[in-house]
UniProtKB/TrEMBL annotation:
Domain of life: Bacteria
Top-rank EC class of the record's enzyme: hydrolase
GO MF, one annotated term: metallopeptidase activity
Name this polypeptide is given: ATP-dependent zinc metalloprotease FtsH
Ranges for region Disordered: 1-34
Keyword entries, A-Z: ATP-binding, Hydrolase, Metalloprotease, Nucleotide-binding, Protease
Species lineage: Bacteria, Pseudomonadati, Pseudomonadota, Gammaproteobacteria, Vibrionales
This enzyme's EC code(s): 3.4.24.-
Organism: Vibrio quintilis
Family, per entry: Belongs to the AAA ATPase family.
Single GO biological process annotation from the record: proteolysis
Length: 483
């Protein structure tokens, strides 16, 4: 087949220093290694589509009773996949897909890797001189190839074995791993059309990973209403009251050792998988930061759920949006973080109207989804009393974040200004920490204002008056005054 790509690095200028030569050689080597890995990945994907082409040919042959119809497509061995040979091979090893599932995955990726593998589906039904309805598929003016649909997959699996229709149904179910992790997608269709007439495709970020080996995080959308929560801070910079910190350490211990507890100690026989916690307390006391640091310190990604994208005015749509999110996170060790959770998880009301009944149904639905979720869920709220008791009694941990005391405030002030500004001789952070009750988020706001003031003066020094003036501005937000 020959090389799939060629890499040439040409120097346009003479390199005059040894360090530049070394850097250029390293860059060339990195590019060559990257291209080489991508070529290997592509070769494996091409072999997969070669197998798909032979399967399609045999399925159609058997279906139309052509010469060789007595053979079955399962007799065609898929290409061997050696672990470590490609990203695709590693995923197949991890996911343990059966032959039907593997065929479905190859069908979804074929238009992007080798469109001509699907050209057999362009055959005409001689009896009516039109394409075979049972092949499914769609065409587009901008694309001359055959685009598979859910019906196309169903034809491959069940055309000659009608009982395997159930296999198609399983693979296209939102609960199936390929669909839940959004590896494959069955695009929605207009009302009144068969669901399986939607385009069946491989998601772009998984295609990118199979070729390059580089993971792309899921983009925030209606099907994934969340975004990655990150922080540049480290665990040692988390400042909390010792009683709060002890509860956070318990959650951290669970995240670090849950596999041992559930598998080796057999706790999975007695409790449901997953962990559920509620963070309550005033704004700025560290709820969001703590969630981000729990993920960072235990090697887990934290996704902050965008409630505005989840809640819909249409009955049933909110449940669908949440279901997509939980399904996508089900096979990953993510932490789902619901900020301002009382908007969704608030107290249920008496069902005096259809809206009230819908809200109560949504509460019950959320309760069940969270209970069944095998990962970690953290719900943050400013008002713990607004939380429905049906939720709170099912949570393993209830953490009440409090306003920091003088000692914690002093540490927050010191951490805030460290490596950012120089403090003038008049600044006494100990006195400020003792006198002014402020949350960590407010202290960061003061830091930002002080830094801007210093920049306008053309210096890096922050004085006591700068800090006090910024504190006044921060307190005015809550209609508070300082002397």
């Amino acid at each position: 087949m020959g090389s799939l790509a060629e890499s040439h690095v040409t120097s346009e200028k003479h390199v005059t220093t040894e360090s530049n030569v070394v850097a250029d050689q390293r860059l060339t080597g990195d590019r060559s290694a990257s291209h080489s890995a991508s070529e290997r990945n592509l070769m494996v994907l091409y072999q997969e589509t070669e197998w798909l082409m032979m399967v399609i040919r045999q399925v159609i042959c058997s279906y139309l009773k052509q010469e060789g119809h007595e053979h079955h497509w399962l007799e065609i061995e898929p290409p061997p996949l050696e672990p470590g040979s490609s990203q695709y091979a590693d995923c197949m090893t991890e996911w343990q897909l059966n032959t039907f599932e593997r065929l479905a995955l190859v069908l979804a990726m074929a238009p992007a890797i080798r469109p001509d593998a699907l050209d057999y589906f362009f055959g005409l039904n001689g009896m009516i001189d039109r394409p075979f309805t049972e092949f499914g598929g769609v065409t587009d003016k901008a694309y001359s190839g055959f685009i598979p649909t859910g019906q196309t997959l169903n034809f491959l699996l069940s055309a000659n074995n009608p009982e395997w229709h159930l296999c198609t149904r399983s693979i296209l179910s939102p609960k199936h791993r390929l669909m839940a992790e959004q590896v494959t997608e069955l695009l929605p269709v207009e009302a009144g059309l068969p669901q399986w007439s939607g385009v069946y495709q491989l998601s772009e970020h998984w295609l990118h990973y199979f070729i390059t080996g580089q993971r792309q995080r899921p983009e925030q959308s209606a099907s994934f209403p969340a975004h990655l929560l990150e922080t540049p801070l480290c665990w040692e910079e988390l400042v909390l009251d010792y009683r709060v910190m002890s509860k956070i350490e318990e959650i951290r211990a669970w995240l670090a050792h849950s596999h041992i507890l559930m598998d080796e100690w057999k706790l999975s026989h007695k409790v449901k998988p997953g962990y559920r916690a509620v963070f309550s307390g005033p704004p700025g006391t560290g709820k969001t930061l703590t969630a981000a640091l729990l993920g960072q310190s235990t090697g887990r990604e934290v996704y902050r759920v965008d409630l505005s994208m989840v809640v819909s005015k249409y009955i049933g749509e909110t449940e669908k949006n949440l279901s997509r999110l939980f399904d996508a996170a089900c096979y990953k060790e993510w932490i789902l973080f619901f900020d301002e959770g009382d908007a969704l998880f608030g107290k249920r009301t008496d069902a005096t109207s259809s809206n009230d009944r819908h809200a109560n149904q949504l509460t019950g639905y959320l309760l069940q989804k969270i209970e069944d979720f095998p990962g970690t869920v953290i719900i943050a709220t400013n008002l713990k009393n607004n939380m429905d008791e049906a939720f709170t009694r099912r949570f393993q941990s209830m953490v009440q974040f409090t306003m920091p005391g003088p000692e914690e405030r002093l540490q927050l002030w010191q951490n805030a200004f460290r490596d950012v500004c120089e403090l003038g001789e008049s600044v006494d952070l100990a006195v400020i920490a003792e006198k002014y009750e402020m949350a960590g988020g407010q202290i960061i706001n003061v830091l930002r204002q002080c830094a801007l003031t210093a920049i306008r003066r053309g210096e890096r020094v922050v004085h006591q008056d700068d800090i006090l003036q910024s504190i006044r501005q921060e307190f005015r937000k809550d209609n508070k005054l300082i002397v």
